[in-house]
Design a protein that fits this description.
By secondary structure, the chain is of the alpha+beta class. Helices cover about 40% and strands about 20% of the residues. It has 2 domains: about 15-70, Phosphorylase Kinase, domain 1 (2-Layer Sandwich), CATH 3.30.200; about 75-235, Transferase(Phosphotransferase) domain 1 (Transferase(Phosphotransferase), domain 1, Orthogonal Bundle), CATH 1.10.510. The N and C termini lie far apart (about 40 Å).
Length: about 250
Amino acid sequence: MLHAMPELGPLLASGRDADIFAYGTGLVVRRSRLGHSMEREAKVMQYVAARGFPAPRVEDVRAGGTELIMERIDGATMLDVLFRRPWTLRRNAARLATLHKRLHEIAAPGWLESFLGGNACIVHLDLHPLNVILSPNGPVLLDWTNARAGAAGADVAVTWLVLAAAELGDTGVPAVAGRIVRAMFLRAFLRHFDLASVRASLPAVAAWKCDDRNMRPGPSASGWRRRCMSVATASPQLSSSRPRRSSAPKS
């Protein structure tokens, strides 16, 4: 006997290319507004989840790949938590670093495209606090659209760039407070890594990010590079310090 599929529920969120709707019990549907296939993204999510990484469970891909049915992850984003409870920034910086390190322990499959010529491991290329849900069972990483095979340092460099150059919409005191929290969070995050390879990747990563069709119009490629390198040179002591062990739980 065939069972009727659940009806599409209310809109939960909208991203750069897709809308996310509630779908039955414990599921969501991510639907591309531009008709892009998410079959490759689903395959990456299944690959990393099978190796113990916290990504949403993929239930199905349908409508020619334009609809991805996956596990619903309840909880606040890490970014929301940072703004509501800024005193947790060190703990969440460690969580973000732990996600990077766990992901970079996973060897890249041969079918995954290379990023900047690398192929050592899986790189997410959008691993920042807005894409991390702090669920009751631990952090879960979303939005695997950009995932490639690459070098760990390049993935950390992308996060560095996003954290350093992201626009803050507020003005006045909220903007000042946001910049302070962001700078402290970035510093705490970077302390978990050996920054030599990360700094070496910044110029190429900045050039790639400036060509990203999903980036809002803004600074030129040279402006992005200057911002990245100014952040690097502003914290020279980080390059000589040994990376800290990430103390956040793996769940």
